[in-house]
Amino acid sequence: MKKVQIDRRHFIKISSLSSGGLVLGFTLPGLQALAIPLGDCEFFQPSAYLKIDTKGKVTVYVAKQESGQGIDTALPMIVAEELDADFRDVKAEIAPFGTMKPGEHDTGGSQSVLDMYNKLRNAGAVAKAMLISAAATLWKVKESSCAADNGEVVNTVTMQRIKYGELVCAAAKLPVPKEVILKSPKDFKLIGKSEKRSSLKDILTGKTKYGLDLKVEGMVYAVAARCPVLGGTLVSVDDAAAKKVPGVLKVVSYKGTGAPMHVRAGVAVIATSTWAAIKARELLNITWDEGKRNKESTDELFKTFASKSTAKPQIEVYSKGDAGSYDGKNEIKAVYAQPFLAHATMEPVNFIAAVKEDGCELWGGLQLPDWAVDRVSKDCGIKKEKIKVNLALMGGAFGRRLHFDFAIEAVKIAQQFDKPVKLIWDRVDDTQFSPYRPANYHLLKASTDDKGTIAAWQHHVLGTPIAFMTDSPETKNIGEMDGADHGFCYAVPNIKTGYTPVDFNINRGWLRSVDICVNTFPVESFIDEVAMKLKKDPLQFRLSMLENRPDFKTGEGPGALTQSPARIAGVLKLAAEKIGWSAPRKSNHYIGLATHSFIFAKAYAAHAIEIELLAPKKFRIVKVVAAIDCGVVINPDGLLNQMEGGLAFALTQTLKGEITIQNSRVMQDGFFSYELLRYDEMPPVEIHVVDSKEDPGGVGEVGLSTVAPALCNALAAAGQRPRNLPIRNEGFSWV
Amino acid sequence: MSMSILKKDSPVPENSCIMYQREKRFAIIIFVISCYQLFFLPFQTTCMPKFNLNVNNKQYTVEAEADMPLLWVLRDLLDLTGTKYGCGVASCGVCTVLMDGNAIYSCQRSVGSCVNKKIITIEGLSEDGSHPVQKAWQKAGVPQCGYCQPGQMMAVAAMLEKNKKPSDDTINSAMSNVLCRCGTYHRIKKAIQLAIEEINK
Ligand code: FES
Ligand code: FES
User: Fold this and answer.
1) Is A715 a residue whose pLDDT tops 50?
2) Quick check: is A430 in a domain?
3) Is A424 helix (H, G, I), strand (E, B) or coil?
4) From A349, which residue of chain B is nearest by alpha-carbon distance?
5) What is the number of structural domains in chain A?
6) A446 to each of A306, A318, A453, A481, how far by Cα in Å?
7) Class of B69-201 in CATH
8) Given B79, B84, B149, which is nearest A215 (Cβ)?
9) Cross-chain Cβ contact A418/B77 below 8 Å
10) Does residue A566 share a domain with residue A462?
């Protein structure tokens, strides 16, 4: 049990003199007053996050959006736990955009549960305290002889029971308690038990409406042809043939934008159906001015990386001791590289915009709606207050919808038409015009001493920073440096980490597991490589540098994050144990390990992967074991689903995912050339969860980063170490 | 001209001629054409061919160009949006529906080729989620974002209709063409086994 002081300023009362009833509404930090429908005491709303009606139905207003992470179930579970409600009476609803403080709707970085855990617990506890207090008054007994149980208050002396719904009107008249008591995690009844997603039935019967499924009154359809080179401009368009396609209503063009979203110059066909628009787009005859940067290629980029990698890093990220003085001494050296990647959400991005003289209304999936509104306002010249956003369910996001280039496009098109326009990106658009996970390159050097330990570790990361696009190549604040800045978790006396940014003409953005994933592949591969060279057991070698190392901060100031080597070691040990690391193996079977922390979301995971080698470069994945430590687990079933899915997502990019560029154009054009993992390629997986009472972490991204290095370490154990992803490029194949 | 379904409360424009009236300068031309149609083409009342479709055991008449893929007919004209768009080029399988009991990619069949066929979409598999495949999916808690799941379930339903006890090879070949970016394959695998158990009870 934990006492929590409630700052009553955070629970604002909204009262009404409406006939016979008083309705209370509360807001938590970060909330503007929420409009509450007032009536004859229809419901009791102890916080904007929470509404209890007279039937006892609880609605949790969630400002986080669902795109498959399962927060539609995990977040109401947290409220229901502290409220002691019957979970079947609790449902989540996305709070309408605009009713919350800017930023509340931001959804990403595995932050939803982290961000909401304590807020929702407090809200549930406050409501429960008020309901108990109302019951005590009614029965004329002390609050201490009342208890909450499964949606009812119980008189612990007489065992009389009364439903929450019957108490809400009385409770609404009470003051907000100064203090509430939160449960101790060991008393949780709901948190930690698997609950099925509440949205399942609609999904399974095809009723769920994603952004692409929405229709608004009078809506028409549009697809766009975009300049093949980022930064190019439109010279001319001959749309005579396109306009002849039955159903075509209008052909419009629009200019591109620069940072942060880099909308490409485009020509859009507006039509009465998606098909008519798609067909007509083929018939457009467009002349583009591609600009000066139309000759860039990934081949050249990787050559640039290679030549710059041996020079001094442009930015010194971290330095401890004097790693530089070990240069060339007893040195092991290796280069690792990873390509650009696309999100390839199954539902391609799309957006509906209706522009009227005095503003616009928008419909679609956005992970950062506040930023989107701000930029739509600036790029399209519409007053911010005049932009109304209706958030839609997303058929996958993975960071793609943190960008909102498509929303700006839709508004630019709709500004030229007097009906709502739905802009659809087809799969080719999605593959070729997205913001890509940056390509990166790593030069790693380790000097060993005669005790067989690492004396110095040097890591030069070269990348194509996202900030060059969202800000500019002159930016002073590069932000993410492909994970170089998140603290090397192994205890080594001399460390030097540097970063060199390289400009490149393709848009970049954040992809699920972000820079942590970028950094984990080279680091976890190279540490393994060093262990092998030193003829040490890769598990023990890692543990010797992790287990006794206390938690440390990755930097200074409030933004600094905490690394916990002990928890990183904990998941590694668990994964190794469960796969049978020390047990005898069949001939031709090899195991690889890797561990890490998804530091932003206080979650730790390791993978152990067993392969069977079928030929020198051909293998079969026998089994994957994952171990995760993410503190208190809200919904175990949701956690498992995220870990299983994370494995598939990571295997795609380990085995075959790659975006290549020639003449500043993306060479892939859909799933035939940007292949995803398929059903028959999914290996058997088992997931083990560390029992922990720490506050919960986020689990959407932690399950990805260690997959590639664990698999590559297994392949290395079998004889050949891949150092470039996807490993298909190195001639590996699998069954 | 416009593709529209002949249904009263259709949100899709009823007639392309109305659309064209927006462009005032075409009004006269349209008027002339309309007169022409009225007097000289009494049997051709609209500009698009019509097709009779049987979807989920209901009869529909749609007006569309003959080459419009069934996918867009279902989604844009009939508002049956449970069938998803993923690629349009037979590379993802999320648009899978049943045609006369066979799994087909609805993005690859023109509306013209669907006449006199029995089409079942996810909305028609069962409205209440009681089909054995839906029940298995519920039990295994398969979906993440859920977007690909209609396609996955239709592929399984078609497979089980032909073969109540499919081998692993049969399952692999039926399922390896339906992609899931969220990576729910592990659960799909489990759910298929549950569905097989259920129908063989
Ligand atoms: S949309 Fe038909 S196969 Fe992808
Ligand atoms: S559940 Fe999201 S694509 Fe399959």
Assistant:
1) yes
2) no
3) strand
4) B86
5) 3
6) 18, 16, 10, 21
7) mainly alpha
8) B79
9) no
10) yes
